[in-house]
């Protein structure tokens, strides 16, 4: 297919594959290091990363900060490749977590779920690259304008389309009625913007497409639309290296198209997930009382939330009933494999 390496500032990924972040705890150092070792970019999910620390329930912020340090160190021990961390702009204590990852000399901070306008200041004077996630050229334009006021540009953009997993930057009715712009068209629009900015400011802003990429043909199509890199998350779930419980991986392998659903997450955004008993019951039975709050995302109001999203995601990653986010075209993900095999199937 003639894919080029992916250059982000002074970092070069030999293959233009980025493993998308998967919270909570689905992509930790194990998966991220395995992808980085193959020459791609591995992403640690920083969302509630301290969930296995003994004081997580009582001392959540400290537990998360400690786990950020531990996971970055563990990834560095396992690989010399490129490691990113994903921290959602809507997370409470976002600034603290970004600063900790930067202190640990993370290569890239990737942020979506809101506009990560604070990033330039948070990485000032360091070599950490900043990569916002956008779902439209409109959002990319606002970010470019804001970053230029701070004397810089983003180091790359991830363009996440409507077929991605987890929280989505599209409206509920657009997703349900499938009335959305396809990823390749959003990539084209963002690429036009970045080309203009590159010319004006003698910079390079690679564009990485994400959401529903499953085959070499998908990659080829997005490459033609101008994409420099390709972010894949769901295909890395049923791999030996993925950090989730076997039951989580099996849910991916066994799911069919009918199991794919869009939910209204308690943080007020639509999200794509696999139908589980937990989701069926919470929709049918309405509000279950939220006992305890981790104060994870600023958009969530625990007194109105139908359930605690952190608890539901943690239960699932530990193999119990809960919320299992996934990208679209889930029926094409139907066997257990390794990171190497997934990458081979995508780029040969
Ligand atoms: C299980 C799961 C968890 C995810 N968690 C996050 C997250 O914490 N932060 C984020 O920015 N994106 C998250 N995503 C989105 C992915 O990083 C990625 O962009 C997207 O899923 C790519 O599409 P694909 O899964 O179809 O390959 C998640 C996706 C999945 C499947």
Spell out the key features of this protein.
single chain, 348 residues, alpha/beta, TIM Barrel, 8-stranded parallel sheet, 4-stranded antiparallel sheet, 12 helices, binds flavin mononucleotide
In a nutshell, what does this entry contain?
Helices cover 36% and strands 16% of the residues. The protein has 348 residues and is α/β, with parallel strands linked by helices. The protein is built from 12 helices and 14 strands.
Describe, in plain words, how this protein is organized in 3D.
The structure is a single chain. This protein is α/β, with parallel strands linked by helices and 348 residues long. It folds into two domains: 6-244 and 331-347, Aldolase class I (TIM Barrel, Alpha-Beta Barrel); 247-325, no CATH class. Helices cover 36% and strands 16% of the residues. The chain has an eight-stranded parallel beta sheet with strand order 3-11-10-8-7-6-5-4. Strands 9, 12, 13 and 14 form a four-stranded antiparallel beta sheet that branches. Helix 5 links the parallel strand 7 (129-134) and strand 8 (157-160). Helix 1 packs parallel to helix 2 (60-78) and helix 5 runs parallel beside helix 7. The longest helix has 19 residues, at 60-78. The site of flavin mononucleotide has 27 residues, from strand 11.
